[in-house]
């Protein structure tokens, strides 16, 4: 509990610096490019367009009534995925990318993945606003379940913030670890129900297996909020329990990792 209290106080005492450094990280990430921060919207939009063309036009594999409906369905699933990949990758590499905050400045290291995560969250908010505009322009009906979307966003941020705290020390210690995680991440996109509807599949064991996939939990949560009009309490109880256990395990492992590596990171940075 002492380690948890220490992390909590560091975030409270450095709350202003977190938001300031988040803006700096956002500018730094797109510095040197002609379009600047516009790439935060252009790049995801191009990826969505490519997957839509590949699946709906190329493979004719859409389970929707029209290409437009499938495009909306795919977009809603891809938006949280972009945030999660940034947290798995950029937030994981935060110690490596901001070594000077570990070695040359007296700065709480637990805050470093947080301001990178907030930077990712700013980009996510912009993409989410763009998604809502697309839903309105395409005539997609919205309901009161839209109000639960911030809950899924906060849970997603907390889960992958804990992931970043757990993996950032390992990524600093081993480049192979960082490269391995990024390689696995590319595969996760195709096994997390982002480009196909898991609920329409006939394989019962695969559906149950997806209950253990937190990426699917958030992607489906976004679709339930914006497209399916299902409340979070309509989710099967065992799926909510599994996610709660996973969140507790990742958060506990993150605290343990930071507690035992905090004093040694300056020597290897």
Explain what this protein looks like in three dimensions.
The two termini are 27 Å apart. Helix 4 packs across helix 8 and helix 8 (149-173) runs parallel beside helix 12. This protein has helices spanning 2-13, 15-29, 39-58, 67-91, 94-97, 100-103, 112-137, 149-173, 175-188, 204-210, 214-228, 237-261, 265-268. The radius of gyration is 19 Å and the shape is globular. It has 269 residues and is mostly helical. The protein has 13 helices and no strands.
Describe this structure in a few short sentences.
This protein is mainly alpha-helical and 269 residues long.
Measured between the Cα atoms of the first and last residue, the distance is 27 Å
Low-confidence sequence ranges? 61-65
Strand content: under 5%
Strand segment count: 0
* Helix count, DSSP H or I runs of 4 or more residues: 13
Ordered list of secondary-structure elements with their pairings:
Elements: H1 2-13, H2 15-29, H3 39-58, H4 67-91, H5 94-97, H6 100-103, H7 112-137, H8 149-173, H9 175-188, H10 204-210, H11 214-228, H12 237-261, H13 265-268
Helix pairs in contact: 2-7, 3-4, 4-7, 4-8, 4-11, 7-8, 8-9, 8-11, 8-12
């Amino acid at each position: 509990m002492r380690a948890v209290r220490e992390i909590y106080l560091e975030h409270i005492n450095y709350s202003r610096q977190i938001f300031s450094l988040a803006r700096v990280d956002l500018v730094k990430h797109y510095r040197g490019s002609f379009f600047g921060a516009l790439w935060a919207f252009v790049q995801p939009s191009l990826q969505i367009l490519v997957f839509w063309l590949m699946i709906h036009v190329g493979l004719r594999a859409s389970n929707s009534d029209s290409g437009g409906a499938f495009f909306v369905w795919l977009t809603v699933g891809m938006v949280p995925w972009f945030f999660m990949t940034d947290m798995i990758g950029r937030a994981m590499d935060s110690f490596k990318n901001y070594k000077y905050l570990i070695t040359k400045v007296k700065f709480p290291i637990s805050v470093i993945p947080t301001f990178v995560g907030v930077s990712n969250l700013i980009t996510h908010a912009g993409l989410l606003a763009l998604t809502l505009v697309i839903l309105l322009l395409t005539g997609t009906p919205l309901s009161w379940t839209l109000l639960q979307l911030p809950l899924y966003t906060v849970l997603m941020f907390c889960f992958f913030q804990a992931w970043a705290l757990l993996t950032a020390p390992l990524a600093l210690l081993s480049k192979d670890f960082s490269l391995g995680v990024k390689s696995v991440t590319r595969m996760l996109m195709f096994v997390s129900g982002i480009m196909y509807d898991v609920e329409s599949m006939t394989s019962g064991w695969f559906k149950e297996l997806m209950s253990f996939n937190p990426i699917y939990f958030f992607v489906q949560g976004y679709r339930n909020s914006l497209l399916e009009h299902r409340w979070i309490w309509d989710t099967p109880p065992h799926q909510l329990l599994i996610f709660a256990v996973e969140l507790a395990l990742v958060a506990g492992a993150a605290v343990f990792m930071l507690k035992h590596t905090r004093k040694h990171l300056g020597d290897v940075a």
